[in-house]
# Entry
Amino acid sequence: RTFVEMFRFNSMVMGFSSHTWMAQVLDSFEAIVENAANTQRLQEECDVLSLHLAQCRGKGGGQQGDMELQRFRAVMLASLRSLLPQDWSSTHETAWVWLWESVEQRLRAEVGKPASHERALEGFIVGLTEGEKGQLRRGLYQRFFAVAPKGQNFFKQSTTRLHFIADRVVEMTLEMYRQPKKMVEDMSALGLRHVAYGIPTDLFPPFVAAFVEVVRDLVGASDAAAAEKATVEESFRW
# Structure
């Protein structure tokens, strides 16, 4: 049996087969294990998983509380022990418990946030006037080119196309909350295309930073309450 097969069997035996959120964690588990030593990538995997779990909660797939997450650990350890009866030791137990506790900590930190982030971001995007959209588009490229001048070599399209790119990025931030699985696939494909085109990956961070700064300025100039402004900025940045 594979780990996935053993996990599904044990979850049924232990009475957790109705907890559909476990399937979401299981789907992400291989990537989590593969990136256990890469803190940044592990955080990214947990961030995406938190979006899946938020959707699962909305569909009645169970709560995301401590007890539920601990149940996944119980099934995980039972499955690993069954697969490696001769090799399993206290050292293995400690290592896998440490990994899952790291994942739990990251997931607990995001409980409830995806839904509130989505609402805040949707309200911000829907409320943008045409003038503010224009300000966002212009401000993005002005700031990006100021901090990364060589980026101009890769943005030689028409103004219409550049505006389309800026608008599409805004749309994608909201779609990430609504369709995380599809967006991860789309973003991965988009990233690979950019690499194939020879776009330096060191341009990605300043592009993101420029976008966040422009959104911060727009939010800061609004009449919203301070807490609401902070939530919008965090939602977009996240």
